[in-house]
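S.,

Sequence below, as promised.
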Amino acid sequence: MKKILTLLVTAMFCLTGTAKTAEEVISELEKATGAMVINFNKEMIASQIGKMGDSDLEQMLKQIDNGRVLVIKDADKAKTELFNSKTDELDSATYEPLTTVFDKDSRVKVLGRAEGDNLKEIVVTVTDGSDCVIVYLNGVIAKDKIGQLINDKTINF
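The prediction came back faster than expected:
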């Protein structure tokens, strides 16, 4: 019994040692690949509201506090594999998968961290054969509105 308990505790520490937040994954990828990272805050978002022409989207963007976008342009196979392995390290206990789409060389994965009926964090990862992108949003978004925020009008890769 003691051996089983020791094995379980060891396994737990191993799993928690590899689980990462979106902020950690973005920082690691930025250092490893020299990727471009754009940070934005509520004031930067507010400066763009009114220019979009979509009042529903603008209302949702008011709920975003801050975020980051990481872009690896013209990623070779090694960078794409590193990107995929790092994004696979996102803590599954923290982020629940909302959707995943595969189309030929493209892969889009949307994850969220929920509190009640709202998402506090949204992570969108995209690979398309040549570029790799992570969009990280921190704020309060109703779960039933996520489709309006993450669509071809707002995030165009």
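Residues 2-18 form the longest helix (17 residues).

Coffee later?
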